[in-house]
Amino acid sequence: MTRRRWLARAAFALMLAAAALMIGFAGLASLAMVGVGAAGACLLVAGAYWFLAHRGLVRWLAFCLMILAPIAVLVTFALNHLLWVGIVAPVLVVVAIATARLALTPVVADPGMPVREVPPPRRAFLIMNPKSGGGKVAEFGLKEKAEALGAQVALLEGPGQVDAAELAEEGVAAGADLLGVAGGDGTQALVAGIAAEHDLPFLVVSAGTRNHFAMDLGLDRDNPAACLDALTSDGVEQQIDLGIIGGRTFVNNASFGAYAEVVESPAYRDDKAGTTLQMLPEILSGHRGARLAACAGESTITGPQALLVSNNPYQDGDIAGLSRRARLDTGTLGVVAVTVDSARQSVELLRGGKGRGLTRLTVGEVVVDADTAEIPVGIDGETVLMTSPVRCAIRPKALRVRVPRDRPGIRPAKPAIDWPTLRQLASFRARPARRRTAPAPRRPRGGISRPS
């Protein structure tokens, strides 16, 4: 507790140092500095919106605004001989916020998702995609290492297209007592659903490109071969939730709106950036794509340009609330919706969750409807067409995941900045001791006693 108190005091000291620096060296101009910095940030965000929402001359003027706005802020500070103040003061504020988070971190950290000891599998069946992650299966010798540990390995390679779900079912029919995947999150989700259906443990090998699922499990994303340690007696088991959308599973999230519309385009594969910039103006203006409406618990979200439903909520670590998930066993869905119809609303996103353009919810079910019979949905990075309305739900602790006992990626969730609690921690005043009050005299049974 003493350490947390001094960290809280240090956070306030750093904040005061930033304010003192600005007032001491800038005087009344410090208020103008804050205004200039805020104006520059607003112009930068507004320029980004105009760049994405328009084409032609307006787009390039917006691009120039995005470049010139921060330069203008720096030049303004430099002309007033306050450039170093404009750099050092924000750095002090950033350090103060980081210190405040440390102060608010509980002394006893959240142990995370519980694990249980289970014997290692005897007939593990692993599906590996040789092309995933730029060829990580061959680069790290995953097939040979898995087979050396007694696993049977099936490769997702031709001739023709190979169905990962069919391979998994064949493995179950042959008597597999564990299913695993070395590949992308989309393939992980398909096989995870089959493992859950047959109540078999599931193994994740971080051989994909981004490995979001592996990251939230705390697995080593730099060395996929380390994930195979779970096949030995060094492995433990966790029970986590699975997302369900239209009868299929997802381990990360389901995305509706702009992202799914863009990825569905045939031109996206060959020119991702160009296709995105070409399609976004019509999507943001509502002239292309389905108009969405979502019922999330007791809330209704009308006309979002982007809607993300995640298997357990993401931490509130950035402007969109998309960083990582501290737990995968809360039995809830996370919802992040962005509804931005103007540059003004895009600027409001700087306020985080307080802006009208950004909605964050934690619910048990989400129903997404549209003004079209079918809508594209990005499920763990793979886009499919689904009949509207689309229902998303959660299956609590439906999947048994086998992971190595020691996982380098396990990190505690970042606490939210709670200034009243921080101020109480930083206080030098001793907490007043609770006064002991004498117990009230008991009345004798049988009525009131009278003095003789």
TrEMBL record:
Sorted UniProt keywords: Membrane, Transmembrane, Transmembrane helix
The segments labelled Disordered in the record are 428-452
Spans of biased composition, class Basic residues?
Answer: 431-445
- InterPro entries listed in its UniProt record: ATP-NAD_kinase_N (IPR017438), Diacylglycerol_kinase_cat_dom (IPR001206), NAD/diacylglycerol_kinase_sf (IPR016064)
Annotated TM spans? 7-26, 32-53, 60-78, 84-104
Question: Residue ranges of the DAGKc domain?
Answer: 119-249
What the entry lists under SUPFAM superfamilies is as follows: NAD kinase/diacylglycerol kinase-like
Give the superkingdom in one word: Bacteria
Name the UniProt record assigns to this protein: DAGKc domain-containing protein
Q: Which organism is it from?
A: Actinomycetospora straminea
